[in-house]
Amino acid sequence: MDLSVDLGKIRLKNPLICASSEITMTANGIRAAIDAGAGAVIAKSVNELPEAAAQLSKADYVLLDDDWRVIPWDSPQRRDASLFCRSGLAQMPLEQWLAMLAELDDYAKQKQSIVVGSITVAQPAPAAEIARKMEAAGLRWIELNLGAPHGREASAVRQVTAQDAVRNYVRTVRRAVSIPLAVKLTAQADDPLALAAIAMEEGADMLVLTGRIQGFMPDIETQKPILGSWGAIGGGWALPASLYWVSKCWRNVSKEVPIIGTNGARSAEDVVRFLLSGARAVELASAAIINGLQVFPEIIAGIRSYCERKHILQLQELIGKAADCSLAYSEIPENANQRFPWEV
Ligand SMILES: Cc1cc2nc3c(=O)[nH]c(=O)nc-3n(C[C@H](O)[C@H](O)[C@H](O)COP(=O)(O)O)c2cc1C
What we know:
Helix content: 25-40%
Strand order of the largest sheet: 3-4-8-9-10-11-16-17
Number of strands: 17
Strand content: 15-25%
Bound molecules: flavin mononucleotide
Largest sheet: 8 strands, parallel, barrel
């Protein structure tokens, strides 16, 4: 069975990508993700501002259960928990960081994986300069994160939601490098599909949909905010919203530009759901942070057994299959004997 997926200029040995997070902030973490079988590993993001790196020293992370209560990190309920956090960017000096990533990418090559440089933007021109240095260091793929949820609270990173701004960031970075460029977008925007189309027009080779969202959660006992502030939140509940934008992008924007799904995948079944919605690969962060990197071999095994059960020989057969047969509301026939499934 062939689990490889085609991302245009890049072919992954499987559709699982270890997403950018604190796990991919150290050489050990990146190497462990490669060893765990990830098709690609997105390094923790960097940008030009010391304030963005300093923000990491104010990071805090909690797990919330279904009732939005904080649970311990070793709780048996952690598998289904939502991860609520503040975060910041990698703190290593850029030259040292890039030398480390280049070395890790050499290691990745031996394992048919790839280490991806990531930039969570502040300003466009410095982002392009960092991208140029990433290419010069020998990296083979860059992810430009325009969707950082924390950009709503901390000006050292930006959540870019305006169409002309997305155009400017992608154009500026695209002109600086020739290696494949993935653009990660937020759905906390007026028209996420317009942002996707613009990123594509400006030369994005892949779209990553969608970034996590900002949230707020009071603790009803202390009557204070959990984390003491606003924060980014993700969980299994985010999956349908992420699949909405992936499927709409597949149907309405392009089937040519590879879509990478992110935000809400917790299992092999969720990865299959992303593929059926139009994604060709899936970036996972929370599941790996919460359950450890063994989620990668577990999910890969789960995808294999799903494919065996469904007689799928190539993952390509799944991509966009459910999105392609989704009806528009206007196409749904009226039901003459409408019955509501509840009693009044
Ligand atoms: C603690 C933490 C740190 C993250 N840091 C970054 C980052 O530096 N750059 C980035 O593009 N995304 C970052 N993300 C977002 C993830 O890459 C991923 O897209 C998101 O968490 C949704 O996927 P998930 O549901 O598998 O967690 C971070 C997520 C978490 C939980």
